[in-house]
Amino acid sequence: xxxxxxxxxxxxxxxxxxxxxxxxxxxxxxxxxxxxxxxxxxxxxxxxxxxxxxxxxxxxxxxxxxxxxxxxxxxxxxxxxxxxxxxxxxxxxxxxxxxxxxxxxxxxxxxxxxxxxxxxxxxxxxxxxxxxxxxxxxxxxxxxxxxxxxxxxxxxxxxxxxxxxxxxxxxxxxxxxxxxxxxxxxxxxxxxxxxxxxxxxxxxxxxxxxxxxxxxxxxxxxxxxxxxxxxxxxxxxxxxxxxxxxxxxxxxxxxxxxxxxxxxxxxxxxxxxxxxxxxxxxx
Length: 283
Prior knowledge:
Blueprint: H1 2-25, E1 31-39, E2 42-49, H2 52-56, H3 61-72, E3 79-85, H4 93-105, H5 110-123, E4 128-135, E5 143-150, H6 156-162, E6 163-172, E7 175-184, H7 199-233, H8 237-242, H9 246-282
Parallel strand pairs: 2-3
Antiparallel strand pairs: 1-2, 4-5, 4-7, 6-7
Helix pairs in contact: 4-5
């Protein structure tokens, strides 16, 4: 049990070290996050960035250097780096946190920088944003200021799926400041949301149902027509069984004239007997 716990702790420490390394190395490239996937062939490292060219470098020199460092310093077996572009940097918490830190380092007031960042994020279509700035902000006593706008899920499955989070630190003369940004994506569908359909929305559904009903009715009519045509063309098995065979028909035809002949002979004999009797009476 202790070995399994230690295994997961070491994996978490390794992931955090790799994240901090890429933040430092790809600061000017607009680093947007990293994902490590372990495969049977090795480790696949997916790096999200705003500027892909600066990550790869001339003739792939920079990306070769990064793979060598991952293998030697962090002990990743056969690392393969895939670079992907961040489609919307304004909705990426990692990119926005690095921008806020750079503004604070250049001397911007933290409130002004935070409010401008929240407006940009909400204008990009986010459902909500939260910015936490903690440390010795205006006095020697440390405190935390929160800037909120919109709705951001705090727990549950929506918070795990639809909320992008980033935590970074910046060192100033007066001390260390911590920055935490949480952005809720615009394509979020919460489980308690109810959508009411208007009659306009129901029209295509009704038309589809009517067309389907017509198709079913036509199929049934075609089946009935096929059954009727088969019944008229092919006689039933009972009628076929009731009909006599060819041999029985021939024997019946042969027997009919014999009966007629026997009846004729019997009738002629009776007439002859009557005639003889009449002749004897006359004599």
